[in-house]
Amino acid sequence: MVSEALERSVLSYLHHQIIFLNEDIDSATAVKQMHDVKAETIIVKNNNNEYIGIITDSDILDKIVMQGEDSDNVPIKKIMTSPIITISAKANVRQALELMRLNTIKRVPVTDNIRILGIVTQEGLANAIRTSVLEQTFRPYRTIVREHYKPIMSNLGFILQFAGFLFIVPATVAALMGEANSAVGIFLCVISMSITGFVLNSYGERTPMNLRQASLLMVSSFVLLSLFGSIPYIYVNPFSSEVDTSNLFINSFFESASGFTTTGLSFITLPEELPKSFDLYRSYTQYIGGLSFVYLIVAFFYPERKLMHIRGMLGGGNLKVRQLILTIGVIFSAYAIVLVFFLYLSGQEDILFSLTLIFSTVTGGGFVPTSTALDSPNNLELTTLMIGMIISALPFVFHYAVFSKEMHTTSVRPELFLYMGIIITFTVLFYFAFINTLEVQSELMTSVFHVVSAATNSGFQFIDISEISIDAKMVLIIAMLIGGTAFSTAGGIKVGRILHILQKTLSKKFTTDNSGGSISAVASPLNKKYIVTNESRQPVKQKEEKIFNEIIYVAALFIAVSLFTGMIVSHMEKEDFVNSFFDSVSALTTTGLSTGITSIEMNPLSKIVLIINMIVGRFEIITIIYLFLNISKKRLQLHPH
Q1: Is residue 515 over pLDDT 50?
Q2: Which of 122, 238, 398, 558 has the smallest number of Cβ neighbours within 10 A?
Q3: For 524, which DSSP code?
Q4: Helices marked H in 328-374 — which ranges?
């Protein structure tokens, strides 16, 4: 790198802070002219316009000031250094430095053999070499940042800006209701998101992303959304006035992450004591996180052909971005209005309360506005919530197909039939494992409700799960692990993947378009069939094997991570492993059911473990797989042996 800098032309480092003066000018006038134009060097010329000498600051100091001479009476030809040592414009830095060393000088005029073009100095060349070395050292890193991370920064900035814009809604509601604490906390969140988003946008470049970049974007955005979303919790402090600063932050981050990931686990035991607008804010985080509004807006700015990776991350399946926006923005809003109406018929007249509850329901969230909201045996209310939970767990493509003439539900029917079969089977199993365990008024409705809550990863409950039998807990654990259908707001392994495994095991042809449920499984368009020729059969087979292996990885990791984190929680909390495992699965599958272990008294490490589970589970662990595989590929390239 140094040798490269030494071989550069001296013309690259030429400067023109010189003046040309006649030899008969007195030194005082020369110094004045020198300082007027901020020159560092004087080139002296004779009456024939020939270069005969050079004067620097040291010449003036040594030959006039130190000698006590009167500068008005000393012509510059008496203090100049002569003859001038010059260097050709064709020379390089190495030759210039060598010339200075041999002649014990610190600057050399550069000439084209006719006139002096400028001057190079020892200090200037040394600085240039140092700069060149630094540039060469950091150039690869700048390239990495520009090519790999600037697109992430830009899109992340835009996500935060748009999220800030969306959260003006609950902030405005809080202000209109006169709930100052809630309003200030949410507005602080809005301002923080907007400013950070602006800064990231300024340094980033909005370009299409590859698979790894999309994975990094989604994970980092959920972490940052959860971080900024914790500001209202920190400001309002709905936990305890005695909580210390570090625990307040962890608790707030936990609640925020639980909202954005639609998990619904909570440390707030009396949500009815919160401002109503703050309850709305909590459920609103689920609505934004579960329906991926912010990512849709990012996707909206890309050409459709460049959205393969980010669209898969959004959970849209075969839907185009505009179709997905229509589904989430219009169809789900219509669902919410209808379900709020049914809650009104069930006796719930508080519209804001009902809206908060429905936001949590249709996103598979689980935050409840009051701790007693589900205690009353109101079958119409429970049925309304179950409908909302099932809506959240069905594919977006199904919702669009129901209301659209251009698409049919044929392709998703096998998965839907299997899903309904799972819910019915697990309801029967839970009923017989649960019966006579607790004294409840309607064991059948209780069984149906809690199985639907687990299978849709919603997390609503009104029984003490810690007191039911181990068999009943295992039914709910397996239901949570399976989760909802592919490309829905539900978490878990997903029914689509289970269907794929069954079809592969039974050696049946893979027919469902979206059963892979992963960001890499690019399914064929709906209602299209492909003729597989001998030439194309092999690539198709390889693609199916890749998808199948990915599904196995996801399923295995869900179980392994749940077991591992369950053991950590059990050890840290000194609690029964089954109960710890239950809450660990609930966090990883973004469900929200709890045996009671998840509480504000938990060890901070246990809280952090569950936070990680919620965020990782929000992406079905698939992003971690791709990030890991990418790192592995890089290592293989670096160490081919």
Answers
A1: no
A2: 122
A3: P
A4: 332-345, 351-362
Listed residue (486, 455, 476, 479) closest to 386, CA to CA? 455
| The residue count for the chain | 641
> What pLDDT digit, counting tens, does each position of 589-614 carry?
999 999 999 999 999 999 999 999 99
The CA-to-CA distance between both ends of the chain, in Å, stands at: 29
CB 299 within 8 A of CB 321: yes
* Confidence class for position 396, pLDDT limits 50, 70, 90: confident
Provide the pLDDT for residue 141. 52
For residue 198, the tally of other CB atoms under 10 A from its CB is 14
For the cut 80, the answer to whether the pLDDT of residue 305 exceeds it is no
**What tokens appear for 389 in the block?**
């939970």
> Which residues are within 8 A (CB) of 416 and not within 5 positions of it... i.e. 6 or more apart?
394, 398, 409, 485
Q: Is the peptide bond before 271 cis (omega within 30 degrees of 0)?
A: no
Q: What are phi and psi of 394, to 5 degrees?
A: -90, 155
Beta strands at 51-56 and 41-45: parallel, antiparallel or unpaired: antiparallel
- 573-598 residues labelled b (16+ CB within 10 A) or e (exposed): bebeeebbbbbbbbbbbbbbbbbebb
The whole-angstrom separation of Cα 503 and Cα 489 is 24
What is the per-residue pLDDT for 568? 96
Render pLDDT for 190-210 as a digit per residue (tens, 0 to 9): 999 999 999 988 887 766 666
Do residues 216 and 627 make contact, with C-beta atoms less than 8 angstroms apart? yes
- Report, in angstroms and rounded to the nearest whole number, the Rg of the chain calculated over CA atoms: 35
Q: Angle at the Cα of 213 (from 625 to 201), degrees rounded to 5?
A: 145
Question: Residue 332 and residue 393: Cα distance in Å, rounded?
Answer: 12
- The Cα–Cα gap between 399 and 104 comes to 84
Contact 457, 589 (CB under 8 A): yes
Return the pLDDT at 295.
Answer: 60
The residue ranking higher by pLDDT, 277 or 291, is 277
Q: Which amino acid is at 410?
A: T
Give the whole-angstrom CA distance, residue 478 versus residue 454: 9
CA distance 504 to 515: 12
- The structure tokens 């459920």 sit at 283
Complete edge-to-edge strand list for the sheet that includes strand 41-45: 18-22, 41-45, 51-56
Indicate the residue type of 132: S
With tokens 């027919």, the residue in question is 511
Q: How many CA atoms lie within 13 A of 43 on its CB side?
A: 21
Structure tokens belonging to residue 172: 């405005």
Q: What confidence tier does 216 reach under pLDDT thresholds 50, 70, 90?
A: confident
How many angstroms separate the CA atoms of 256 and 224, rounded?
A: 10
Query: 250 and 607 in contact (C-beta within 8 Å)?
Result: yes
Q: How far, in whole angstroms, is CA 207 from its chain's centroid?
A: 16
* Rounded Cα distance, 593 and 590, in Å: 9
Structure tokens at 487: 């490309």
- Two tokens, residue 1: 């790198």
Taking the C-alpha atoms of residue 487 and residue 434, their distance in angstroms, rounded to an integer, is 31
Q: Which structural domains are found in the chain, ordered by start?
A: 2-114 (3.10.580.10), 142-633 (no CATH)
Secondary structure (DSSP) of 146-181: IIIIHHHHHHHHHHHHHHHHHTHHHHHHHHHTT-HH
How many helices (H) and strands (E) would you count in the chain? 27, 6
Tokens, residue 423: 């819910």
Write the pLDDT tens digit of every residue in 318-360. 666 677 777 777 888 899 999 999 998 888 888 888 999 998 9
